[in-house]
Design brief:
Radius of gyration: 49 Å
Distance between the termini: 95 Å
CATH superfamily of the largest domain: TolB, C-terminal domain
Shape: rod-shaped
Structural class: alpha+beta
Number of strands: 34
Number of domains: 3
Helix content: 25-40%
CATH architecture of the largest domain: 6 Propeller
Strand order of the largest sheet: 7-8-9-10
Length: 549
């Protein structure tokens, strides 16, 4: 209301001062108070002024003063000269020109302006506004699209890095495998040589004593060891591989280690591993059993390799037994579990860890003692374990038919694998626990016994593939149990129901089955430092060691 009052006061105020309006100049269209009338007339003495009471005012056009004839207003428009002129101009300089009343020109011009205004207001502004809305939509779409491109680019960057990491992880594993194999062979010869040297030195010392002896019986009792010592240990020649690479910028990247070749083709963003002399399938065709022996564990529930010749095993008792490839017991760890360990595994530092589901702990064995390193979340119980290359520990947690996997870095949980990107549970509810491993590309591969399938999940929780056993063509339902990966990133899954091993590539594609080695109810599975498979047969309590690489 104060704003309306203010506008009313402006209308009723004198144009020369703030006094109330009483008079009005029709010629100049000026609001005046009584005191300012004379001021206005004096200021424009050359012009005529029609001063009337404000109520009698006449709203009209204010004609400009003629610049040539003082006191005259330009009330006419000269079309020839395109300028306003006064009456004196019409009979003077503009005599004979086409002249029209100025107010008609102004009226016509105002109509044109009005028409233009209406067109701008009713047509052009809405049209531009609509175009502006559309361009904003396009800006939003472009922004969203480029954000998606940036995200995809980052994903591709990670994929490229994973491919490179996978290649060099494989070569790292192969180098260590070759190193362990060659050093074991050389060390074996070395130990034999040192032992023989000690025996020969002792024999020489004894022979010299006998030569000094005066007692006939000492001389006659001496038996020659020369034939034994002349049986020189078989020498071996170690052929160490060389690492060759082709890293010309912008070209295909290639690296070779012995018979193994890996290439990274940049445009296609794909990696292929090729055996120069032997394909993977041919390697499996040459698979053979190199050891088979019974154990005291019946049922044989769990097995995890330790080095190149040994493995830790356990059944349904409190003991975890270390056994070598010949079946001889090397060590026994008696746990504090009430019944038996729910899971066993060896860390990167070769320390034994086991889970105690009743006490809800994961424990490590060091220096003859046991230390708790993980306490399960409230209500959950820890079962099977897996120690990753990075030093993390994957723990299968179970409660009332529900499974999940927690990744621990020390005591801290850094990942939970339980639902996919859509919020759907990854693992089927049921009474059975999970088996798990980690592939060279960082995917966590899981045997879901309740769902009768194998699922691979990446570090971000996205499912990479699911395998249901159907490509193998086996008669019985797929019964996945323990699973492992080898140095070539193959995924090997024990099939309890079909007495075989499924071999998959790292993308979950079926390659073949190993089913000719009498693998009755395979349950435990592990890979030793030589790349050999140790297969534990659950009910028979037998371990079969298979070499295929």
């Amino acid at each position: 209301m104060s704003a309306s009052k203010s506008r009313a006061q402006e209308v009723l105020s004198c144009d020369l001062c703030d006094n109330p309006i009483q008079q009005f100049c029709n010629n100049c269209q000026v609001n005046l108070c009584v005191e300012c009338v004379s001021k206005h007339v004096d200021k424009f003495q050359s012009l005529s002024h029609d001063i009337v009471h404000f109520r009698n005012r006449k709203i009209q056009l204010v004609c400009p003063e003629c610049k040539i004839h003082s006191g005259q207003r330009c009330e006419v428009f000269c079309h020839d000269c395109q300028t306003p002129v006064c009456v004196m101009c019409c009979i003077g300089p503009h005599q004979g020109h086409h002249a029209v009343e100025l107010n008609k020109i102004i009226e016509k011009k105002k109509q044109e302006i009005q028409k233009e205004t209406e067109e701008i207001e009713s047509k052009l502004i809405p049209k531009y506004q609509e175009a502006d809305i559309n361009i904003k939509i396009e800006i939003s779409k472009a922004t969203t699209h480029y954000a998606k491109l940036e995200k995809e680019q980052e994903c591709q960057r990670k994929l490229w890095h994973q491919e490179v990491d996978s290649i060099f992880d494989t070569f790292d594993m192969m180098i260590h495998t070759m190193k362990d194999r060659d050093l074991v062979a050389l060390t074996t010869i070395h130990v034999k040589l040192e032992n023989t040297i000690q025996n020969m030195t002792q024999t020489v010392r004894q022979n010299k004593e006998i030569l000094k002896s005066k007692k006939p019986e000492e001389v006659t009792r001496c038996s020659s060891k020369l034939k034994e010592f002349k049986d020189f240990p078989t020498s071996i020649t170690i052929k160490t591989p060389n690492l060759n690479s082709n890293t010309i910028k912008g070209k295909e990247l290639r690296i070779e280690l012995g018979e193994m070749t890996a290439t990274l083709t940049l445009p296609a963003m794909r990696k292929s591993f090729d055996q120069i002399t032997t394909s993977s399938k041919e390697s499996f065709d040459k698979a053979k059993i190199v050891a088979s022996f019974p154990t005291e564990c019946r049922p044989l529930g769990k097995i995890t390799c330790f080095g190149s010749e040994d493995a830790w095993i356990c059944g349904e008792n409190q003991e975890i037994t270390r056994i070598d490839i010949h079946g001889y017991v090397q060590d026994v760890v008696r746990t504090t579990c009430k019944y038996w360990p729910a899971g066993i595994m060896v860390t990167k530092q070769n320390d034994l860890v086991f889970s105690d589901s009743l006490r809800r702990t994961v424990n490590i064995v060091k220096h003859g003692g046991t230390e708790t390193i993980i306490n399960a979340p409230r209500g959950w119980k820890p079962y099977r374990l897996f120690c990753t290359r990075s030093g993390d520990i994957l723990v299968n947690m179970f409660i009332q038919g529900k499974n999940k996997i927690l990744r621990y870095q020390g005591h801290k949980i850094i990942q939970e694998i339980v639902k996919d990107e859509r919020g759907t549970p990854i693992f089927k509810r049921g009474p059975f626990r999970l088996f798990m491993t980690e592939n060279k590309n960082g995917d966590v591969c899981v045997s879901d016994v309740n769902g009768n399938n194998v699922v691979a999940v990446d570090r971000t929780g996205h499912i990479q593939f699911t395998y249901d056993g159907k490509p193998s063509g086996k008669n019985n339902a797929f019964g996945p149990r323990c699973l492992v990966t080898d140095s070539l990133s193959h995924l090997i899954v024990a099939d309890f129901n079909n007495d075989c091993l499924h071999i998959l590539d790292q993308n979950g594609h079926f390659l073949r089955c190993l089913d000719t080695f009498g693998l009755e109810n395979p349950n435990g599975l592990s890979v030793d430092g030589e790349g050999r498979l140790w297969v534990g047969l659950l009910n028979a309590g037998i371990i079969r060691v298979i070499q295929y690489l």
